[in-house]
Design a protein that fits this description.
There is one protein chain. This protein is mainly alpha-helical and about 100 residues long. The protein is about 65% helix and about 0% strand. The protein starts with 8 loop residues before the first helix and ends in a 9-residue tail after the last helix.
Length: about 100
């Protein structure tokens, strides 16, 4: 069964990556906003080491949204690897047969 038509596998890969980039950017903004509500001086880089900020490390709302961000990042990597494997094998990733 065809999911998308008229797209090359490379175009599909680009579109999926663009979608993930957009979702990740939005979630990073949300996580930063939450972090700054807890500690106003924090930067985007501080989010990578949230464990160095005890108030963040114990804030359940921050942890929940940060977990969503981590999940989006993991999904982006997994889908990219799957598409790369499909393209390398010469199969069409636009079909749902495997």
């Amino acid at each position: 069964m065809l999911i998308l038509s008229g797209m090359t596998p490379q175009n599909l890969q680009s579109e999926i990556d663009r979608l993930f980039a957009e979702m990740i950017d939005l979630q990073e903004r949300k996580v930063l906003e939450i972090a700054r509500s807890v500690e106003p001086h924090l930067t985007r880089d501080d989010l990578w080491n949230a464990c160095n900020h005890p108030k963040l490390d114990t804030d359940p709302y921050f942890q929940y949204e940060d977990g969503h961000l981590a999940g989006l990042m993991a999904a982006r990597i997994a889908v990219a690897a799957w598409l790369k494997e499909k393209i390398k094998a010469g199969s069409d990733p636009k079909t749902t047969d495997s």
